[in-house]
Specification:
With 97 residues, the chain is mainly α. It has one domain: Orthogonal Bundle (Helicase, Ruva Protein, domain 3), CATH 1.10.8. The chain is built from 6 helices and no strands.
């Protein structure tokens, strides 16, 4: 069993990660960061982010367009960035320009 302190620590960590994901998506939407730049960042927060949400954060990239790209590359929409292979990362970096 987890103690209240452990639960509070885990909740605080989860909130930090969610806030980081939100900030990254906003930077991508604003054009301050590209998807390729985010894919090559090797931080814990980025590695737990779903690739579909990141791609859809771009301007003019909706669900249909993102799904088309991901299906073409045989990547699940919910796939975590940290679980992508180097080949998938390079294909995605080139396909989202």
């Amino acid at each position: 069993m987890t103690t209240a302190e452990q639960r509070d620590t885990a909740l605080a960590q989860a909130n930090r990660v969610r806030a980081s994901h939100y900030q990254i998506r906003n930077e991508v939407k604003a054009g301050d960061l590209t998807v390729a730049e985010v894919l090559y960042l090797h931080s814990e927060e980025v590695e737990t982010m779903a690739i579909g949400k990141l791609i859809r954060a771009q301007d003019r990239w909706g669900k249909q367009r993102a799904s088309r790209l991901l299906n073409l590359l045989n990547i699940s929409d919910n796939r975590r960035i940290g679980l992508l292979t180097d080949r998938q990362v390079s294909l995605l970096a080139g396909g989202t320009d």
